[in-house]
Amino acid sequence: TDVVPPGDTAAWSVPPFSGEVRGGLLYGRGAVDMKGGIACFVAAALRQLAANGGKPAGSISLLITGDEEGPSINGTVKVLDWLKARGETLDACIVGEPSNPSALGDEIKIGRRGSLTAEIVVHGRQGHAAYPQKADNPIPKLARILDRLSSAEIDRGTAHFEPSNLQVTVLSVPNRAPNVIPAEARATLNIRYNDAWRRPTIEAWVREQCAAAAATVGASYDIEFAGTGDVFLTEPGVLVGTLAAAVAAETGRTPALTTGGGTSDARFIKDVCPVVEFGLVNTTIHAVDEHVPLSDLSRLTAIYQRFLASYFQTN
Known catalytic residue: 195? Predict the structure, then answer.
């Protein structure tokens, strides 16, 4: 689970784990997300050591985990616990997630939205569709709750984040018969929330909206929450400024400081030290024929090395 599955291998133009080079492009699952970034980390660290006669100006650690694309419980989380138990501290971290949407140097991720999933179960009474007076259909009641949730303005965004976003992702009832009113109706929704909220406050908002809608239709319901990471923001400072300068020097681009996209292991590291994300271009991640230009690998390595040299000079 260090990379996602390749999908239909017959759809690939090369074996998905071959690491084949064609026309200046390296093909393979994980070439961009994110074995390519790891290779650039390693090469940059080695070059920086060589430039200093094998004596680093400070400590450089590489954290390479095996379950970031899975449950994320046996990788970064456990290493951070291990470091804490040893009394070791981290000053700063760069996560090599493919952060750039179009070209190397487009963006540095200085934060990520939080992610909260909620499952709502509305209870009714099963019965025959021809005799609705003898049943209690939960579907219209669930629809009323979902309409309120999906139409509500959660917020209007903040200085570094776009507005929080709610999407209904799953709808289900426990029967397939077209002439049966179900006993319950379920919905799952996902909210990506900005730094105007924390998990307890966004949960409270969802509960308030559900209660208000349920009261208008007499709905009996339960709701459960699960979160995959709270929101975080690394304010511009030494880490962000040093990396942005390295990116500009190697690419000629001034990177935008952004917070969009999904979650990453930075959600764990943000509790330990300042963290940002910068890596390759993400246009082919998780896709058939995932690939990266060899020139981007060389430039990303140069960016990381320049960052290390500058960071240790100023700290």
Answer: no
